[in-house]
Every structure is written in C-alpha cells, then in structure tokens.
Design goal:
Blueprint (H helix, E strand, L loop, with lengths): L1 E5 L2 H18 L4 E4 L6 H9 L8 E4 L1 E3 L10 H8 L11 E2 L8 H14 L5 E4 L21 E4 L2 H11 L8 E4 L2 H5 L3 E6 L5 H9 L17 E6 L9 H9 L8
Length: about 260
C-alpha cells in the first residue's frame, strides 16, 4: 500500500485525479472501475474540468441498489450520469453499471464478471471505504474471494446512507456489488477516504490485520494499492509520519 496523506480533501482529490488522468492520457482505451457516494464527487468534478478524452474509455461501476428505477435520484445509474458521464465524451455503450432491476439477478452478476474479463480487466479501480470498512457493498464478513453478487446491507450502512434518502426505512436492503475477489483483480486500486468518521476504518484497513471483518484490509495484499487521505481520515494512523516521509521523498520517476 502507498498511503498518501494530504492536508484536506481538495488536495487529496487532486492527487487522485492526476493518477486517473495520467492513465487515460497514456492509455486512451483504459478500463476504469468507478465508485459512487459523496467521497468521489469532487474527483469527478475535477476530472470533468480536465477535459480528458473519454471516447475510448470503458467503465464498470462497483455496485447498484436492487429495485430502484434507473431514473431514481439515488440510483447509481442516475448518480453516474448526473455527476460524470453526461459531462464527458464517453460512449454510452462503454458504460457498465449493474442492473438492479433485472429479473434474474444471479445471471446479471455472472454476465458482469464476463463483461469485465472481455474488456481485458480493470486498469484502475476507484474505491471509497465505509465506516465499517466495507468496499463496494462488501460488508464485514464478506468472503475475501467473493465475486459480483447480491448482498444484504448492514444496519450501519443503511444508517450511513439514510442521509441520501431522507429516511433510513427508504434505503434498499439489497444491492448488487462487485466482489472483493473481483476488485483485487484490478491492476491498480485507488482508495479515497476523508473525515474523522472514516479514521477508524482506515487505520484498521491499513495497519490492522487482514480480515473479513474489515474488507478494505485485503488491499494490503494488492501489488499496487494507493490510498489518498486527508488529515482527518489519517488521524489514527500510527505510521503517518513515515507515510509522509515516503511520499515526500519519492524518486522523480515515481512521482505522479
């Protein structure tokens, strides 16, 4: 893991945007795994402002609620088109988001895995982290070898997401999510976390044992995992000064 600690979410987001922008510029037909939620919003706005060429880029989203119409303001289809896709020159046929309204969810999950493989795999997978350590919607106790599948959300995640729906009872209880095994097959993983409410999950993921109780901890096993944090999200890390030293003293050829 490379832990990148910045003073605030804006500067941490800038680092993440540079990583993705470099990938798109160097490999125009790159395959990106994308995330939703409040954490990547600033990143998507930054990428829009960079005027990159997305015409050959393919994307695969991590997850989607089951049972929400695509046009529902809290569906991830709606989120992605409103906050990124309609502002860039991506081709609609290159956008992939799990279909939470399909009649056969199991079949859709298998097809999603096949589509990722057919695209050549994911080059960079963008992640957030839940306050309980979940990535995508892989809740604690999720198999570290899991594939795209249906999951039941925890009460904590429903509570955390209630702010988007106005009422916790309106949060769907079931989702489709890429599995942890799927995420780990990406060639590079880029995780963002901001705020003190993520600090415990971050320290458990970065400095704790690898455990299904904190699914994000599996990223310790990934060969190219970058974690962009603000000071608040990094506040519990015991080795924070070391991470800063490493980042500040990278050789020129490693710099973003």
């Amino acid at each position: 893991m490379e832990i990148i600690i910045q003073s605030n979410p804006q500067t941490a987001t800038h680092v993440a945007a540079q990583i993705i922008a470099r990938q798109i510029r160097n490999y125009p037909s790159t395959v990106l795994g994308l995330a939703t939620g409040s954490t990547p919003l600033m990143l998507y706005q930054t990428l829009i402002e960079m005027n990159l060429d997305w015409s050959e880029v393919k994307t695969f989203n991590l997850d989607e609620y089951i049972g929400l119409p695509f046009e529902h303001p809290q569906s991830y289809h709606h989120f992605m088109w409103e906050n990124l896709f309609r502002h860039i020159n991506i081709r609609e046929q290159n956008v992939h988001i799990p279909d939470g309204n399909a009649e056969d969810i199991s079949q859709i999950c298998q097809q999603y895995e096949q589509l990722i493989k057919a695209a050549g795999g994911i080059d960079i997978q963008l992640l957030g982290i839940g306050s309980n350590g979940h990535v995508g919607f892989n809740e604690p106790t999720s198999s570290l070898a899991s594939r795209t599948r249906i999951k039941t959300l925890t009460q904590q995640t429903c509570h955390d997401n209630a702010r988007f729906f106005g009422n916790e009872n309106d949060v769907p209880r079931h989702v489709i999510t890429m599995g942890i095994g799927t995420i780990m097959e990406a060639r590079e993983v880029l995780m963002l976390a901001f705020g003190t409410n993520k600090a415990q999950a971050v320290v458990d993921a970065v400095e704790g044992p690898v455990s299904a109780m904190n699914p994000a901890s599996i990223l310790q096993m990934h060969p190219v995992a970058k974690v962009c944090l603000d000071e608040s999200a990094a506040s519990f890390l015991e080795k924070s000064e070391y991470y800063r030293w490493v980042y500040d003293n990278k050789p020129a050829w490693q710099e973003i």
